Amino acid sequence: MTPPKATAGTAAWHVVASTARGRSHLARGRPNEDAVARRHLPAIDGIVVAVADGHGHDRHFRSATGSALAVQVACRVADDLATEPGRFRRRPAPIERIRDQLPSAILGSWRAEVARHVSAHPFTEPEQAGLDVDGDGPEVPYGSTLLVAMITPAWLVCAQIGDGDLVAVKPDGGYCIPVPGDAALDGLRTTSLCQPSALDSFRVGTRDLVAGPLAALLLATDGYGNSQAADPWQPDWARDMAELAAERDREWFAKQVPGWAELCASGEGSGDDTTIALLLADRGAGTWTR
Prior knowledge:
The protein has eight helices and twelve strands. The protein has 290 residues and is α+β, with helices and mostly antiparallel strands.
C-alpha cells in the first residue's frame, strides 16, 4: 500500500541524539566505535535515523569506519527508497517496498563502500596476513551492527542487524519492540554486517502510526541497555519516558540525552561506547527538525 496521508491525530517527529566514548575504550586507547546519523526525507515528509556499533575486537580493527559507513549508507539508501521513479514525476514509495528492499539495499551499498575504502586504504602486509590466517574477507575488519528507523507522521519502518535496542513508547506508557527478536544474540556474540549471511540476519518491522500512535522511539547501542539495572528494563523505562515526553519539550531532552550517554559509557554504567537516538512525537508541529 502507499503511505497513508497524515491526519489531525498524527505527529511530526524531533530527534535528539548523542554518543559517548566508553571508559573501557578509553582505557585501551580505542576510539568511540559507535556512529549515528539522520536525514530528512522530504519526499515522504519523514526522517531516517541510523545507529551503529562497531565491534570492539582486534579482528574488527576498522570497525569505527565500518559503523560510520553503515549509518551514512542507511540514510542514503532510505532517501533513495522513499520515492518511486515515474515517467513524469516521483511519488512516495509503498511501505511494503521500502520494508522489503531496505536490508538488501543497505547491505549491498555498505559492502560497496567498504570495498572503496579498502581500495583507497589497502591493508598492511601484517593485516592481510592476519585476515588470510583467519580466512576472513575484507568486510570483517569493518564489522558493525546497525539499527535504522524511517518515520513519517503516519508510519514507521524499522530494520536491525545485531544487538542494541529499538524500543517504541506508547502514549499510555506501554511499549513495543518494532522488530522481531534474534535467538542468535546471547549477550556475548552478535550478528553483523560483515558476515556472509548478513542479509538473513536482518529483522524488519512496520507500524501504522495513525492506528497506533507513539510518543517516542529509542535507538541505542548495547552500551545503553547493558547499563540498566532492571531486567527487563523496558517497562519502567517506557512509563517514565511517556511521562517525560508529555511534560518536557525537546530542548529539555537535548540537554539530558548527552548526560545519559556519558553515564552509560562511564564506570558507573556499562563502560562501553554508548549511542542514543531518541525520537519524540510532536503533535502540534507542522514541520520536521533537521
